[in-house]
Design goal:
This protein has 7 helices and 23 strands. It is α/β, with parallel strands linked by helices. A hairpin with a 3-residue loop joins strand 10 and strand 11.
Length: about 425
């Protein structure tokens, strides 16, 4: 038995022993009765597995089991055809971490479900460098750049290069272009699913220049093929944000990932809100005979779908349905209910502001709330912001700001709601007399 095989056997034994920890707690419901799939797969990233049976391994197994439960409940199509991982499957790229990933998936995958994954530069190669690609292939038997056909649909994955000099080489970009050309020539009316770790720059939520998580190495290639649906992770930005799907010349999806939430708020990067470590998201993706693509955002921890997108324009050269600029132009500002009140309480000399959530229309969502406190002369003495927590499976009815102090005087307190497109509500106001 080889060293790799020995490590894998140990990880499988440990994972099997811990398997009861990875069972789904609930079966999500499928309410799209008019959509009959001919293909179904689940896609995620950033499981950050370290050892067998750890939280990353458990979340991977639970994601797969929950998707099986969902598929089993579908009267029309019960298959789960593939499980896809867009990089950072391990936290440090150690051999035992890769073996733990294989064990976590092998322990729950059924016959007929294909496992595919790409290797990322950031975490998957942090221990053994580019040698990690060979370790991955040795343990999984899967090449790190791949082009597979599943149920007649093309799946293309591209990993970081094995060169120490480049994250992706010119040869890889050329290969990707060639594979896409072949896929589109074979099935011009079908979506082509592409998997890579980093978002394409300035596409989905988390890919903007000021976020720091986007790369433009694939942009020119993807722009040639409107059939492309690119699925990526890396940013840890939530997949149930309306900006997590992007369309223009092609389509891009942010898969959310399995580890934690992160945001950029007013150019403050790496914001990790309270409860972010419970973040566990994946995309359950289905295609029907008309080549419509239904994307359901799964909160793995809660076994609940928290959003969905229907892509019915994959071959359009220019797509507006999920184009950010187009959707922003149609959006309207959030609205507080007529009886909404801004409540201020004082405890131990500090003031706390609490407000009810504002409302939006369509697929819009309140992103955050901004608090401004001014004195009698209009001078700003305190500002703050609070995320709406729209990214959780259960959104709270109210939002509370951090407590603050003011000196003696009269103060105006003002709170506005800001949606994901930057629209700002009329304010809720009150007065503090100290």
């Amino acid at each position: 038995m080889s060293f790799y095989s020995l490590i894998l056997s140990i990880c499988i034994a440990v994972t099997t022993f811990l398997a009861p920890l990875a069972t789904p707690v609930a079966t999500p419901e499928n309410n799209d009765d008019d959509f009959v799939p001919v293909l179904r797969f689940v896609a995620t990233s950033d499981s950050h597995i370290i050892t067998p049976g750890d939280i990353g391994s458990t979340r991977v197994a639970k994601m797969i089991n929950t998707t099986y439960a969902y598929a089993d409940a579908d009267a029309d199509y019960t298959a789960l055809d593939a499980v896809l991982f867009s990089g950072d499957i391990t936290d440090d790229g150690a051999i035992i971490s890769y073996a733990s990933f294989v064990a976590a998936t092998d322990n729950v995958l059924r016959e007929g479900t294909e496992r595919l994954a790409v290797v990322a530069k950031s975490h998957d190669c942090s221990n053994y460098g580019k040698k990690a690609l060979g370790i991955f292939t040795e343990l999984t038997g899967q090449e790190t750049d791949f082009h597979r056909i599943i149920n007649g649909f093309h799946f293309i994955g591209i990993s970081t290069s094995d060169s120490e000099e480049y994250q992706y080489t010119e040869e890889q970009v050329k290969w990707l272009d060639e594979q896409l050309a072949q896929a589109v020539a074979d099935a011009p009316d079908q979506p082509v699913f592409v998997f890579n770790h980093e978002h394409v720059l300035n596409t989905v939520f988390g890919s903007r220049s000021n976020d720091g998580w986007g790369l433009d190495v694939f942009t020119e290639v993807f722009e040639k093929y409107p059939q492309v649906i690119d699925i990526s992770g890396h940013s840890h930005y939530p997949a149930n944000d309306p900006r997590a799907i992007w369309q223009d010349t092609f389509t891009a999806l942010n898969d959310g990932g399995l580890s934690y939430y992160e945001f950029t708020v007013y150019n403050e990067t790496s914001v990790h809100p309270s409860g972010s470590k419970t973040m566990t998201q994946a995309l359950v993706i289905e295609v029907d005979a008309e080549n419509r693509v239904l994307v359901k955002v799964l909160d793995v921890n809660k076994s609940k779908f928290v959003d969905e997108y229907l892509i019915d324009n994959v071959t359009d050269a220019q797509k507006t349905k999920y184009n950010h600029e187009y959707r922003a132009s149609l959006s309207t500002a959030p609205v507080f209910s007529e009886d909404a009140q801004l409540k201020v309480s004082k405890i131990a000399g500090k003031y706390t502001v609490k407000i009810p959530q504002a409302e939006t229309t369509g697929d819009n969502k309140v992103y955050l709330y901004r608090l401004t406190v001014t004195d009698e002369n209009g001078n700003v003495v305190h500002t703050d912001w609070a995320l709406s927590e729209y990214y959780f499976a259960t959104v709270p009815d109210t939002v509370k700001f951090d407590s603050f102090k003011v000196s003696a005087g009269t103060y105006n307190v003002n709170v506005v709601a800001e949606d994901v497109w930057g629209n700002i509500s009329t304010p809720l106001t009150t007065t503090i007399n100290k």
